[in-house]
Design goal:
The protein has 78 residues and is mainly α. It is 53% helix and 8% strand. The protein is built from four helices and two strands; from the N terminus they run H-E-H-H-E-H. Helix 1 runs antiparallel to helix 2 and helix 2 crosses helix 3.
Length: 78
Amino acid sequence: ATGKEDAIRTAFIEFDKDGSGKLSGEDFEAALRAAGLKFTRHQAISLKRRLDRDRSNSVPVHELMSLLGISDEQPAAS
């Protein structure tokens, strides 16, 4: 994994405050910003709608990671 992938993974996990594996709408946008991903508000909302398949107003972290081509596995400790 690259440093960028680790930063993205870490940001998404940190914003999953309840450990559900999903990010609420506000947490989703904050996690994108914290990960250094630049999306306009409109783009972030569109992406959230695309990933929120069950209409629960939350985005599964693993789906977002998959879309970005990043494994959601934690890196092994070395």
